[in-house]
């Protein structure tokens, strides 16, 4: 039964089924098709929904079928005289009316319909609400004079061209500093035809183009559009959280690729129309290339600007190009420190790799690492697996740039410039140049390592021939130099050197070490202590640079003892816990660090719920500038899933590292501690957990919980260059990219605007699963669940027999 009272209006060419005004519902409109002109007696109808948009941001300009809905074809007599047209019911209309009256008794015959009054009423409503805009072609029939007179009577103005509408919307978002809406409007703007796009760009002043390019700067746009800004995304997180829409196979954000594409389209059209950009406008383009880790693209842009001319480059542009060329900003290498860490394989032309056996070991290690890392950290301009750190290992490029800056162009060397060059020389493992030519000359800091004892000393630098009391105007260091020293020395596995320099600069210049610098040092200690990094250092006999096993814990204690009011976050506790597991320590259920991590995760869940309800409430109220709320909601959702994945990996590694003593019949850790740990961390332990006991493995499965469903998507093949038998060969690596579907996935929701419950439930039916396997995902999940249930029943059936067999004999 339908409670709403429907009324049918048949007015010549129109038939409408409308609900009462008190209820919001669609209006089914029957319009005569264009094919009916040859047969006046036969009328065909096409039904179009005319329900108003659910959100005020969706205008009629995006819905042409709804925009022309209230402007149907009318005769000249109806428009001029406004006479009441009597309804003429055909056979099909009369039959449809009879069927409707039989189904719904309240449906009655229509009253005479006045087209002119209807048009006047709709135009007045549009001008009042400004929801629908009157299209330029208001009338489909009649001569031009009748159409012009009707537009003058109705007061309808023509719509501006679409390129003007798109760009006006983009400018409105630019005035509000809303980079998310600006990005969406520019997506339609750059998709216009070339001629129309050039015409639109030619009408704009150069200052508007400059402001538009600066607003697309990745440094500014990432804060509002990238929920993972400042967070490292590993390969495992990329697979488990379904981040295919967020990142590409090279580990770069897709957002920066879109920003760079739109920049290039606008700049190309502006240059073809005769426009000239300011030098500062190219900085945003260099940053976009850097955010994609595209060194080759940045070099092409540099050669296009200053390659064939004798023009003196702007120092700001040159500084930004050096940062991109050597990935001197954390955003440029995706906040992943493993991409810029020292790889001993890159030292093959130095004295450390004279033995061919060591080279073979490093090649095999590099091949095995590439099998598990997809294409993260590779050069996207090469068709083979060429890591980015191999493009930065040469000493000549950075030396040439440094001499050009200091001696040729004689630009000023500030602290920012000196830090950039220090990072560039660190990529080439040239720490001696940093010590003698930068730290000593511009900061007055000199470090020396005793070759006999290996002790590292830091002291003031006194030039030769000068008196000890002579004071040279050195650069006053700040916290930027502290952060640079941590990255320079720790990226080359010199943890002790970095710690001694930090302590000396802090005491000598009275600069307290901030907690952010301590956090960076703690993360670098974890990277340098990884098994792959220490193994590669041992292959080239760099045993003195291998950090001790408890290096992370030593830095943690120094941080908590030295830094005042330090507040470690979730990431810092995760680094400490992983370091303890790496040392072979089994975490108990009452571990203090794990308890703090669970408390921080619960706080993040509360923030996520608050962001969801605030976002949904704003959508229902119809407030258009919701970009800050949308950004907060996306960041809270990503952070919650990232913390869950980190805790899940820690639990998995902790149970996998449990090695009970086989000489004992009953081991306390496997009999008591492991079940307690699983019970305490039940939300993060994967369904189907197993751990080792002296008698074998224990497998725990809960059929009521969600099972991880791996879905094979694509199979790739990449070639890795390897040095084998004194020749270079290309070894093929077959890689599979799959998704693991679960409630923690970061894919889009189906009904995000209807209710906050689908956003909080986390069910598989509320997610837009990958398109290749979206239809059979739930069926596969149910099939896996039934299989696990059968296995559980079979094990329970065999359990009495096993107990009877293992039961000791009665004496």
TrEMBL record:
InterPro entries: ATPase_expression_mit
Superkingdom per UniProt: Eukaryota
GO cellular component: a single term: mitochondrion
Chain spans, region Disordered: 30-55, 140-161
Keywords (A to Z) from UniProt: Mitochondrion, Transit peptide
Principal localisation: mitochondrion
Pfam families: ATP13
Protein name (Swiss-Prot/TrEMBL): ATPase expression protein 2, mitochondrial
Location within or outside the cell: Mitochondrion
Biased composition (Polar residues): 34-52
